[in-house]
Amino acid sequence: MAKPQKRYVCQACGSVSPKWAGQCGDCAEWNTLVEDAGAVVTPFQARHNLQSGGRAIDLVGLNADIALPARMPTGIAELDRALGGGFVAGSATLIGGDPGIGKSTLLLQATAKLASAGKTVAYVSGEEAADQVRLRARRLGLGHAPVQLAAATSVRDILTTLRTNAPDLLVIDSIQTMHSDLIEGAPGTVSQVRASAGELIRFAKERGTAVVLVGHVTKDGTIAGPRVLEHMVDTVLSFEGERSHQYRILRAIKNRFGGTDEIGVFAMGEGGLDEVSNPSALFLTHRDENVSGAIVFPALEGTRPVLVEIQALVVRLASGATPRRAVVGWDSGRLAMILAVLEARCGLSFSSAEVYLNVAGGYRLSDPAADLAVAAALVSALSERPIPAEAVAFGEVALSGELRPVAHGALRLKEAAKLGFERALVPSGLKDGGGVRLSGFARLGALVDHLLGRG
Description:
There is one protein chain. By secondary structure, the chain is of the alpha/beta class. The chain has helices at residues 77-83, 103-116, 130-139, 155-162, 190-207, 228-232, 279-283, 332-346, 370-383, 409-418, 444-452, and strands at 8-10, 16-17, 33-35, 71-72, 87-88, 92-97, 121-125, 148-151, 169-173, 210-215, 235-240, 247-255, 263-269, 272-275, 294-301, 304-316, 325-328, 353-359, 391-393, 396-397, 403-404, 423-427, 437-441. Helix 8 (332-346) crosses helix 9 (370-383) and helix 9 runs parallel beside helix 11 (444-452). It is globular, with a radius of gyration of 26 Å.
């Protein structure tokens, strides 16, 4: 008989190694390999093929009729927007975010609304006692909602309790505190998180219960535990934002029942999380219109345009000093590219200056259409010439210095006109301004000349 082999699983990325090492070979994290006591690998050699002896499965055509899954709206429009219309019966949703960002608050508000609408809802907390959850609900004005609370960490106890009367929605807060007695290991380990999530997801599929799992995050902002956890669930939501700022953004990273291009925007108030139906007004408050290096960019999140202010600061240094590049809310690599294009194609020198770039309000941008707005802010900061306050800018910058149009330009301009902006700096070729006067440029050099008053 072959000797059983142990395996070691990385707590950061979930990769498996046959032996222990100080550093994970996949993610390069130190001291994260832990023995997976629940999975002892016994090597063997298959003596028979797998072409017979199994159970025949039913094959259906791709064109077979199928009904759309029924949605369970939460009553919170911004949450339903991120989910694609609400929770789906029998689905598993994973929501992650920084500690104190408002995950439990949002789920408590959603469960209270669903329970008040007649749905059966169970909220199981593994981190707080039931009385603590009840006290928070009273502070939020939700103390009369018929939500069933429990404090437990044993998956067997939870499923035994809910077996006879499965709820419409089950919230587990959090999956890292759950424990399965089928395998050894402390709660939070890779094997425990995987086994506990697997049992809860199986319960959801068999009983038609929508299960929501709250997940911890690492210092990098990714959901802690094995990466396979994100593959097991149907929907992954990320709750983003800074605790020092008022706003919160709920973003869908994965969604088997809808798109991943929508966001929900919330503002933290005394009564919990409030919906923000007009995020542009939130990110443009207290804007100084006579400062150089600032311009408004109409970002697009799914079908929702959001206007944010991009701020740049350029500080000249003495000769010999090493300049610094600092970015908040944007990709630092893309900033380096824009600086290189401005220097190589437009004749502007940033080599002896420190460059600071910030997206106001703590908003995080991933839209390539921000290239033109960032370039305009940098030129304004370098020349100390303010950009007109009524102007917005968007477009993609190529390494050749060419300005390229981006998708949904009309939608961005419509939102800008709604908020009172009268002018837009855009790549040439855009025809309909939707009430906004367009200034089109074919190359970045032409935009630089326009902002500097040359020609």
